[in-house]
From TrEMBL:
Keyword Nucleus on entry: no
Name used for this protein in its record: PTS friuctose transporter subunit IIB
GO terms under biological process: phosphoenolpyruvate-dependent sugar phosphotransferase system
Taxonomy, superkingdom: Bacteria
Database matches in InterPro entries: PTS_IIB_sorbose-sp, PTS_IIB_sorbose-sp_sf
Organism: Secundilactobacillus collinoides
Molecular function via GO: kinase activity; protein-N(PI)-phosphohistidine-sugar phosphotransferase activity
């Protein structure tokens, strides 16, 4: 057995209201794993994230390498996980490290805009590195990569959105 991943989501805001309430009640995890090397080193952000977890669900902030290690460790088979990364590139690193997301695919919730980026949806902005990472997950890892802010929203295939934007 391996860890039961209920949702793998990229969201530049990480653990916030929509994730803590709506997504958690939909996918019913017993653990939220925020996977980010940067946040794992930032004591304040780490504390804020662990405190934002909804009642009954524990949140941990771990590095990309730690997630890869614990995914295959049978001691963590009891985890019903909601995995959050800040970037698509971190999700690619997990997949390349052996974390199996074939059951869930990759949900892209929001990627914040910076100058020079292209808006794919009202909540998702991409630069070339994000485009390359999405293409890798879809084309090479053969994963369903989709935009969906909340469960009630219709899934939007990101490879289709990239093609429509000429990316």
């Amino acid at each position: 057995m391996t860890m039961d991943i209920r949702l793998a989501r990229v969201d530049s805001r990480l653990l916030h209201g929509q994730v803590a309430t709506v997504w958690t009640s939909t996918v019913t995890p017993n653990r939220i794993l925020v996977v980010s090397d940067g946040v794992a080193q930032d004591k304040l952000r780490k504390t804020l994230i662990t405190q934002a977890a909804p009642a009954g669900v524990k949140a941990n902030v771990i590095t990309v390498n730690k997630m890869i290690q614990i995914f295959q460790d049978p001691r963590f088979d009891v985890f019903k996980s909601l995995i959050l990364t800040e970037t698509v590139q971190d999700m690619v690193a997990l997949v390349k490290g052996g974390v199996d997301l074939s059951r869930t695919g990759v949900n892209i919730g929001s990627l914040s805009y910076q100058d020079g980026m292209t808006m794919l949806t009202d909540a998702i902005a991409v630069d070339q590195a994000a485009v390359d990472a999405i293409r890798y997950l879809h084309d090479d890892a053969h994963l369903d990569v989709y935009a969906q802010k909340v469960p009630a929203d219709k899934k939007q295939d990101l490879s289709v959105l990239l093609t429509k934007k000429g990316l």
